[in-house]
Fold:
Amino acid sequence: MMNKYREERPEGDTEDIRASWAVGFAKASEISSIALEAILPALLGVWLDQQCSTILLFFSIGLILGMIAAVNHLLRMVKSK
Structure:
């Protein structure tokens, strides 16, 4: 069954036929998710540091894990293009 938004094209032709605003929103959503992957673990680490009375322990762990996740997502996004 053919998708109503994409017509049959030769293999390797990946032209996007969506409206330009739809493409823009999709890209903005993907970039926002990468930013949240980097920031949320660090914020969770700050909260855990406050709960456990530690100084920068969980923040550092959250920051490192968040950055690894964000870079991994960014690399997968670049490879798919």
User: Anything to note?
Assistant: The mean pLDDT is 86.
